Amino acid sequence: MLKILCTAAVGFALPLVGLANDHPAQAALLGMSELERKAAFSRVLVTSDQACGGGVQTLIDAKRFDLNNNAYWYLRCAGGEQYEVYIRPDATGSTHITRCSVLAQYGLSCPAALSDD
User: Fold this and answer.
1) At 40, is the secondary structure helix, strand, or coil?
2) What pTM did the predictor assign?
3) What is the pLDDT along the chain (117 residues), one digit of tens a residue?
């Protein structure tokens, strides 16, 4: 069983109600600039006690949605720590955050693109 570090609600400044999409939080993220997206994910990390000092790099796994329609994003902090974030398709965009180092213990990995700046 994977150790899940945190569950948090994504507090986007953009309204999530009324978006014509199966996944309102994903639609909101995709509608943001990269700078806005980095700020949103930084807030998620801070909320989950996983503060990412010095900024965060984001990478979407556009092809990966699980059976529950959760969207997957990957984050890399300036200090090198990496996270997998899956976002539920609910109105608030509830998230689960797992360190990539924990995934590796179970033979899973985060995308190699996170290794390069």
Assistant:
1) helix
2) 0.71
3) 333 333 333 433 333 333 335 788 888 888 889 889 888 888 888 888 877 766 778 777 665 667 778 888 888 888 888 889 888 888 788 888 999 999 999 998 888 766 554
